[in-house]
Write a structure and sequence with these properties.
mainly alpha; single chain; about 170 residues; about 60% helix; 7 helices
């Protein structure tokens, strides 16, 4: 009998279940509030608090808040560690080649694993740093990486605990 490709790889024809409407609403509110606040603060005060990986962070924080990847330790630690790796790399090699970009992202992933703070969106932080170039100041570690991640976690603390019986985060450290 001829098997379909999906059968060969063990897949099914069923789609994953849709999230409950309250979770979808919370994800919308959290994502809009998080990125909106970071964008507002960046614009109003000229403090760089917004970077593209934070959009993906919002997906984890507000759409799948129970995931280990969406816990404060992972969000904050992941962004700080990955950004630090990017900053160190730009100091060691000011003109980063494409191959080096790959190596630096790999190093950021390994570093996040070593400190038990894996956060997939933070894997893009070294790319952001390297694309900005060697003149990116060390303060980029604080603004936007640390401060932006902390603000998003604080918003998640409110949004993810509005629903009766919910408890977020699952752990802090």
């Amino acid at each position: 009998m001829i098997k379909t490709f999906r059968e060969k790889i063990g897949g099914t024809t069923a789609s994953p279940p849709r999230a409950p409407l309250m979770r979808i609403a919370a994800a919308f509110v959290g994502g809009a509030a998080g990125i909106g606040l970071l964008a507002f603060l960046t614009d109003a005060y000229g403090a760089a608090l917004l970077m593209a990986p934070f959009g993906a962070t919002c997906v984890l924080l507000f759409a799948v808040p129970d995931s280990p990847l969406a816990q404060p330790r992972n969000v904050i630690g992941g962004h700080v560690v990955a950004t630090a790796v990017g900053l160190i790399a730009t100091r060691l090699s000011p003109s980063i080649s494409p191959a080096e970009m790959g190596i630096v992202v790999g190093l950021a992933i390994a570093a996040m694993q070593l400190v038990r703070a894996v956060h997939p969106p933070a894997g893009a932080d070294p790319i952001v740093v390297m694309m900005l170039g060697p003149t990116v100041p060390w303060s980029f570690l604080v603004l936007p990486a640390l401060a932006g991640a902390v603000i998003l976690v604080m918003i998640a603390l409110v949004v993810n605990n509005v629903e009766r019986g919910s408890r977020w985060p699952k752990y802090w450290l």
